[in-house]
Amino acid sequence: MILDGQRTFLWSGEMHPFRVPSPDLWRDVLEKMKAIGFNTVSFYFDWGFHSPAPGVYDFTGVRDMDRLLTIADQVGLYVIARPGPYINAETDGGGFPAWLATQAGRARSDAPDYLAATDEWQSAIDAIIARHQFTDGTGSVVLYQIENELAATGTSQRNYLQHLYDKARADGIRVPIFHNDKGRNGYWVPPSSTVPGTLPGPVDLYAFDGYPGGTCHTDGSVGSPNAAPDWGIQGAGGAKGGATASDKTPGFTAEFGGGWFDYWGSVGTYPCTAIRQGPGYERVFYGTNIANRLTVQNFYMVSGGTSWGWLPAPVVYTSYDYGAAIDEGRQLRPKAQTLKTLGYFVQSVAPLTRVDKGDAVPTSSAATKIEHTVNAETGTNFYFAVHNPSSATTDDSFTFPVTTADGTYTVPLRLNGQDAKTLVANYDLEGNHLVYSTSEIMTHLRGVALLHGRDGEAGETVLRYPSEPRVQVLEGAAEAAYDAATGDLRLTYSHHGIIRVRVTAPDRPSLTLLIADEDAAATFWRVDDMLVRGPQLVRSAHVHNGRLALTGDTKASSPLEVWAPARTLTWNGKPVATRPDNGALLAVRNLPGPRDIALPDLTAWRYAAESPEAKPGFDDAAWRTADLTATNSTTKPPAGQVVLTADDYGFHHGDIWYRGHFDGPAPASVTLDWGGGGAGLAQAWLDGVHLGQRTIPSGVASPPTRNNDTFPISSDLQTDGPHVLSIMVRNNSHNEDGGVNDAHKEGRGVIGATFDGVVPSGVTWRIQGTAGVDPVRGPLNNGGLYGERNGWSLPGFKDRSWSPVSQPFAAAAPGTSWYRTSFNLRIPADVDASLGLTIGDPAVPRSDRHYRVLIFVNGWNMGQYIADVGPQHTFALPTGVLDPHGRNTIALAVTGDGSSGLEDVRLTTLGVARR
User: Fold this and answer.
1) CA distance 670 to 668
2) pLDDT tier at 136 (50, 70, 90 boundaries)?
3) Sheet holding 654-662: strands in order across?
4) What confidence score (pLDDT) does residue 2 get?
C-alpha cells in the first residue's frame, strides 16, 4: 500500500467499539460496513472506558480491543486507529478517565503528571495496535492518530505531541501517524509541507475534519442544505484550504460529517439528521470531496451506537444514533445505499486514484457547474456535475462539452433537487472502450458493468468499436445506434428498474450493461469479484470447486441472482436451486424472509423503595469523611469549607450521596452549588423530610453543567439539632476538554453548601458513591445508588421479598425506587432481531412527569430516560447484552419527586432479518 494520495483510496467509516458493548455486534456492524462499500474502518479507543484507576488496564475492555482488530482483519477492512489520549467523541471527559480530573497538571500539555498518565495508556493500547499493523504483515491497521482537534499550539502542546509521537514509535508503531485538525487551521502539518502559514508538528500526514452539511432545526424540521466546500484541488488553497495545507501528502479528512449528535431536551432530531445528511447530501458533499482529490475520507459516523451507562458527555443523551447510515438498531438507512454506490465506484474505477485538476468546463446553464479531473496516464476524465451554488435544489437540464482523445461531445444532463453526479469518459470498461456515459458507474467485473441513475431521468452511454457490434436488449427499454464514421455505439434509455443490454463485438469481451435506477441499484452487492442481486444484505461470498457459498440477510421474500465463476450455490449454508440466465445464475425460487417473532409482555414486576440514605437514622459510619482542604478541580469550594467534589474522593460516575451532620438550629434555607453535567439532578432531605429536587436546565446543544439552587426549609424543621442534611446528586458525566482548559475537571456533586447564605461551621460531611468497578462491564456501568451498591441491578439478585406490582405503576415516594422483572425470549436461531425497551409515548418528546430511570438489562446500564427532559423513549438492547434465546432480567431505578408514577414499559422491535 502506497499512501501518496495517488494510488490508494481509503473509503472509511467511523464506528466506536465502546458504544457497541458486544463483540458479536462488532462483527455484524463491520460486515455491514464492508458490504456497503467501505474498505476501511476508523476506531476511537476510549481511555476512560478502559482505565478505572491510575495504572489499571488489565480488564475485559482492553483485551477486547485485540479481538476487535482481529475481527476487522477477518472481515477485510483496513483500520485507522485513533487511541487518543484525547478523543472528544461526545464521551465522558472527552475520553479521559475520570480519575484524571484530580491531577494537578494541565491535560493536553507537557505537565509531567499528565505525560506519565498518557504513557500508561499508550503502553497498554499500543501493544495491541502494534500487533495488528499492516506494515508488519500481521493485521490491517494502516494509520495511527496521536491526538484529536488540538487547537492550542503553544510550546507546551508542541512538546506534548512530540512526546506522544516518540512514545508511539518506541512502542513499535510503524504506520504513518497523524493528528486531526479541527476547522482546517493548517495546524500540525508534516515537516514536508512548504505551504506558508502552516504549523509543523510531529506527524507524517496532515488530516482535518469538517461538518459542513448543516444540522436540523430545533423543531426537528430539515431545513435547507448548505453549499459543499472545496477543500482540495478545486479550492482556493493555502494553509486554511483543507488538504492544500500539506502539498506533499494525501488529502485526508479524518472526520467528515455523516450526521450529527442530539442533545438533552431536544425534540429528537436523529430521523431528521438522517435526511439532512442523507442521499442528496452524500452525493453533493462526498462527491465534491472526490472531485477535490481527498483520497482518505473518514465519515463520522457510519455507525453511532449507544452511549450506555455513564459514557455520554453532558452534551448528549443515551442514544448516539447520529442519523448514521447504520442506525442504532443496526438497520441500514436509505442513505447507506448512496454510500454503497459511491464506495463501489471509488473501489472499482482505478484511474480515480491518480488525478489532477482538469481544464475548466462550461455548462449551458449558470445554475450548474462542472468540477473536472483527469488521469494523465490513462486519459480518463471525471466530470463532477453539481448545482451552482451546490446548495441549490432546483430542477435544471443543461449540456456541457466532453473533450477527450475520442473527440468532443455535447452531453445532456439533468440535476433535480439536492443532487450531484460523477460521470466518467475515456475509460476501459471491462475491455470495452467507454467514450462517456450520463449514467454513473457503480461497479464492473468480468463482462458485467452496473450503471445507475435517478428514476425517470434520461440517460445515454456511448461505447466505441471498430465495427458494428451486436446489441441485445435483454430487459427493459433501450435504443441503440451505431455511427460507422466514428465507431460510436450510442445507447439511449430512461432509467427505470433494471435495463439489461448485452454488447458483443469481435476482438472485445462480451459486455452486459446493467442500467438501474436507484432503488434497483440498492439490490446489488459487490463481494470481491462477484456481483449479487436481491437480498437485503450480502455479507460474504466464497467459491470452492464451482460452488458459491453466500451469506447474508433477508427482510422479506427476495430474488437471488449472481454473477460469479460458479455452477451451484448455497445461501446461509443451504442449497439453492438455480438456472442459467443471460450469464448469471438465477434462483428458481425466492429466498425466504424472516419468520414472525412474538415479544413477551413485561409482567410480574416487583418493587422496592430505596434511598435509605435520606433517613436520619441511616448508618453512614463506613462512608468516606470529607476531609480534603485542597483540590485540583477547576471549581473550588467556598472559603472555610472542606472539599466536597466527588472525584476528589474517587467517586467518578453516576449518583453521589452526601450526609451533613450538624448541631444547633436548622437554617431557613440551604443553597447548593453543585455540578451534575447535562440535565443533572439534585435532591435534598433534612432529617428525612424531602426538601425538593432540582434539574440543570437543558434544551441546547451546549448545556450548562453546574447550577446554584436554594432549598427552603419549613419552620417546623428549624429546630435544635442534631440534624442530618441528605443530598443526592446525579452526575451526568464530565465535560469534554475541547478547549484545552481542563474543563473535564469541573467539579461534580456538591461543590459548596451554604446555610442562610453563610458557609456553616461544625458540619461533618460524609460521602458515598459507587462501591467499586464492575469487572465485566467496566467503570462506566454503575454509580452510587443504594441498590447498585447492593446488587439490585444484577440478574442474580434475589427479589422475591419485594412487593408484586403491575402496570400502570403508582407514584412512589421522593427518591429512588426499583422495579424488576424477568422474561424469556425465544428468537429463532436464523433470525437476527434488534430489540429495544420503550418507556412512555415516543410521539411526545417530553412529558410533565418529574422522574428519570436508569435501565439495567442483565446487569448492564443501558441508559437513562428522563421524562420531563427527553427526547429519548426507546433504548436499544444489544444482542450479547440481551440473550435472544434465554432468560433476561430488567431492573429499573426510578428517581423522582414523588409526584408521578413510572409510565408504560414494553419491549419493541427495531428490526428483524433472516440470516
Assistant:
1) 7
2) confident
3) 624-625, 764-768, 654-662, 723-731, 681-686, 689-695
4) 44
pLDDT per residue as tens digits for the range 786-807: 999 999 999 999 999 999 999 9
Residue 7: predicted pLDDT:
59
What is the pLDDT confidence band of residue 64, given thresholds at 50, 70 and 90?
Answer: confident
Whether residues 839 and 757 share a domain: the answer is no
Residue 696 exposed, middle or buried by CB count within 10 Å (0-12, 13-18, 19+): buried
CATH of the domain at 564: 2.60.390.10
- The residue type found at 682 is A
775 in a domain, yes or no? Answer: no
Domain stops at, among 549, 564, 593: 593
Distance CA 578, CA 547 (A): 12
Contact 759, 640 (CB under 8 A): yes
- How far, in Å, CA of 1 to CA of 10, rounded? 11
What is the pLDDT at residue 823?
Answer: 98
The DSSP element (H or E) to which 397 belongs, if any, is strand 395-404
User: In angstroms, rounded to a whole number, what is the distance separating the alpha carbons of residues 141 and 143?
Assistant: 6
Whether 425 and 362 map to the same domain: the answer is yes
Average pLDDT, the chain: 96
Q: Which residue has the cell 432468560?
A: 887
Is there a single domain that holds both residue 499 and residue 579? no
Same domain, 578 and 662: no
CATH of residue 388's domain is 2.102.20.10
SS3 225: coil
Same domain as 822, residue 744 = no
**pLDDT tens digits for 35-63?**
999 999 999 999 999 999 998 886 667 77
In a shared domain, residues 587 and 625: no
Examine the domain organization and report whether 401 and 273 are in the same domain: no
- 217 domain residue, yes or no: yes
E strand intervals along 465-567: 470-475, 478-483, 488-494, 498-504, 511-517, 524-527, 530-533, 537-544, 547-553, 561-563
> Do the bridges between strand 458-464 and strand 488-494 make them parallel or antiparallel, or are there none, so unpaired?
antiparallel
Per-residue pLDDT at 59:
65
- The position carrying cell 463491520 is 30
pTM attached to this predicted model: 0.96
Taking a C-beta distance cutoff of 8 angstroms, is the pair 549, 571 a contact? Answer: no
Query: 352-389 burial, b if ≥16 CB within 10 A, otherwise e?
Result: bbbbeebeebebebebbbbbbbbbeeeebbbbbbbbbe
Q: Quick one: 728 and 847 in the same domain?
A: no
Neighbours of 823 (CB within 10 A): 15
Condensed to tens digits (0 to 9), the pLDDT of residues 564-583 reads 999 999 999 999 999 999 89
The CATH number of the domain where 742 resides is what? 2.60.120.260
Q: Is residue 347 part of a domain?
A: no
Grouping H, G, I as helix, E, B as strand and the rest as coil, residue 376 is coil
The bridge status of strand 511-517 relative to strand 40-44 is unpaired
CB 691, CB 707: distance < 8 Å: no
Tell me the residue range of the domain where 636 lies: 612-768
> How does strand 578-581 pair with strand 574-576?
unpaired
Domain count, the chain: 5
Helices 60-75 and 23-35 pack at an angle, to 10 degrees, of: 30
What whole-number distance in Å separates Cα of residue 440 and Cα of residue 290?
14
Query: Where is the domain boundary, 469, 504, 535?
Result: 535
Give the model's pLDDT for residue 75: 96
* Alpha-carbon span 607 to 821, nearest angstrom: 9
Would you state the cell numbers that stand for residue 466, as one nine-digit string? 471498430
- CB-based burial label for 832 (10 Å; 0-12, 13-18, 19+): middle
Residue 601 counted as domain residue:
no
CA-closest candidate to residue 434, choices 474, 402, 456: 402
Separation of alpha carbons 288 and 230, rounded Å: 7
In DSSP notation, 624-652 reads EE-------SSS-PPTT-----GGGGT--
Task: Please give the pLDDT value at position 174.
Answer: 96
